[in-house]
Amino acid sequence: MSADASAGSGANDIAPEDHYEVVVIGGGPAGLQAALILARQLRRVLVLDGNRPRHSATLEAHGFLSRDNIPPNELRAAGRESVEHYETAEIQFAQVTRVQREGTGFIVEARGVRGSRARRVYGERIILATGLKEHFPHLPMLRAFYGTHIHSCVVCDAWGKRDARIAVFGVPEAKTLAYRAAQLSRIGSQVTLFADEQQVPEADAQRLRELGVEIDRRELEDAVGEKATLTGMRVVGGDIVPVDAAFVLPGYEAQLSFLDADLMPQLTDEGLVEADNHGRTGIPNLYATGELTAPGPEVLIISAGKGARTAIAAHRDATGF
Predict the structure, then answer these.
(1) Of the candidates 319, 306, 316, 318, the residue with the CA atom closest to the CA atom of residue 278
(2) CA pair distance 165, 37, nearest whole angstrom
(3) What is the C-alpha radius of gyration for the chain, rounded to an integer number of angstroms?
């Protein structure tokens, strides 16, 4: 971005072709679905995508009707192709660096990625669809198996681990480990839940034991394997519990540091953006959708559906009725 461009003081300094009715920040299923709906209503829409998807390590996406088992990058590419079919829609790989208020709309600044140009545009409305950043337990080898043998989404990936020996664990603040273990008890040949009593109280642990789940209160030290294949989970002290697969419950963080302070929406106790059922935040003309809103990460088709619902709300708001 040139010094002249970044020094502009308002929307009047932005060329007419860089004015959009809606700017969508994030090009995953929620953001692309929102853009598709808006484009079909002849809204001029720009998608700015930093191209850093949370599921970059995942080999296949599951549970998406007509796209089951598709690699996530292919799903996103197909989504971009659908959106770009419409003449009022534009998609660019760019990392948003700042969003500031300008009248009733917004000025969005972004630096180019993958050889694309920097942008400074005006949007009458903004849809935040940036997803969440994952924070994993501090196990040195976890990333080596993530996306192949260790997964975070039970609904998405458990079917592929049927009859396997499965471990379940999560970050210290994890609240739904018992539910995950109960889900997996009907999938795996043996399920071992690694959790302390703060994560899973003894009353819940006893119910899980009745389902055949092993409860291991020891602290995990690392994931272990041979030739890129997970073979066990090592606890502090050195003992290794043999497993074939694992499901981890990460912590999540909303990626909103590019918003000026006066545009920061309210967050829930879980760090998600507070929005109504249609994605409207407490900031006029600022919407949030997909994993950013409660209940957080879900299967991709639900994220896409939330994007569609938010787009419809933004379109309706723009009509003034």
Answers:
(1) 306
(2) 43
(3) 22
pTM for the whole thing?
Answer: 0.91
Is it true that 3-133+251-319 and 137-249 share their CATH fold? Answer: yes
Number of separate helices (H) and strands (E) present in the chain: 8, 16
- Residue-level pLDDT, tens digit, the chain, 321 residues: 333 333 445 788 999 999 999 999 999 999 999 999 999 999 999 999 998 876 655 678 888 888 888 888 899 999 999 999 999 999 999 999 999 999 999 999 999 988 889 999 999 999 999 999 999 999 999 999 999 999 999 999 999 999 999 999 999 999 999 999 999 999 999 999 999 999 999 999 999 999 999 999 999 999 999 988 999 999 999 999 999 999 999 999 998 999 999 999 999 988 999 999 999 999 999 999 999 999 998 888 999 999 999 999 999 999 999
Looking at the domain that runs over 137-249, which CATH code has it been given?
A: 3.50.50.60
